[in-house]
Amino acid sequence: MAKRTEEKSPKNVDPAALRLVAPRVLALAYPYRWTLALGFLALVIASGINLLFPYLIRQVLNGELGLSLENDLSLIAGALIALFAVQAGFFFIRHYTFQSVGYRAVAAVRKMLFEAIVKQDIAYFDSARIGDLLSRLSSDTQLVQRAVTINISVALRYALQVIGGTALMFYISPQLTTVIVVLIPLVVLSSIYWGKRLRKLSKEMQQEFGAASASAEETIGAVRTVRIFSSIDREAARYGKKIDDALRLGIARARFAAIFSSSMVFLMHSSIAMILWYGGLLIVSQELTIGDVTAFLLYGVIVAASFGFLAGVWDEFMQAVGAAERIFEVVDRPSRIVSPAQPLALSTGAASVEFKNVTFAYPGRSDVVVLNDISFTIDAGETVAFVGPSGSGKSTIASLIPRFYDPQHGEVLFSGFDIKNLSLEDLRARISMVAQDPQVFSVSIGENIRYARPTASDEEIVAAAEAANIREFIESLPEKYDTLVGERGVQLSGGQRQRVAIARALLKDPAFLILDEATSALDSENEALVQQALERLMENRTTLIIAHRLSTVQHADKVIVIRHGRIEQVGEHQGLVSQPGLYQTLVEHQLL
Question: Is residue 27 part of a domain?
Answer without folding.
Answer: yes
